[in-house]
Amino acid sequence: MSKIHIPTPLRQYVGKQATVEVKAATVAEAMDALVKQHPDVRRHLYTEDGKLRAFVNLYVNDEDIRYLQKEATAVNEGDNISIVPSIAGGRV
């Protein structure tokens, strides 16, 4: 099983869990498993047409999947997937 680390703002949609364990071979499969277990989180991660939202960044063992094989990135037993929402705003 791999662990998906859930950021604090999304925990209310996954039963207040900090991590969710999933069985998957790729990041896409892992995220699909997460959404199947916790359907309320889908709208916060994906657009209406099923694309990962632009402000949602995914990491496998601290490696940004945008620089790997994106959602086709392989995951192995014990890997950690982190959901990191981009933060914007504020004043200088």
Distance between the termini: 43 Å
Q: Spell the H/E element sequence.
A: EEHHEEE
CATH superfamily: Beta-grasp domain
Q: In angstroms, what is the radius of gyration?
A: 13 Å
Number of DSSP helical runs: 2
Q: Helix amount, in percent?
A: 10-25%
User: What's the number of extended β-strand segments?
Assistant: 5
Could you give the order of strands across the largest sheet?
A: 2-1-5-3-4
Beta content comes to 15-25%
Q: What is the name of the CATH class?
A: Alpha Beta
| Main β sheet profile | 5 strands, mixed
* Uncertain stretches: none
CATH topology heading: Ubiquitin-like (UB roll)
How would you sum up the global shape? Answer: globular
The average pLDDT value, as a whole number, equals 93
Q: Structural class of the helix and strand makeup? A: alpha+beta
Q: What is the count of structural domains?
A: 1
Question: Mind telling me which CATH architecture this is?
Answer: Roll
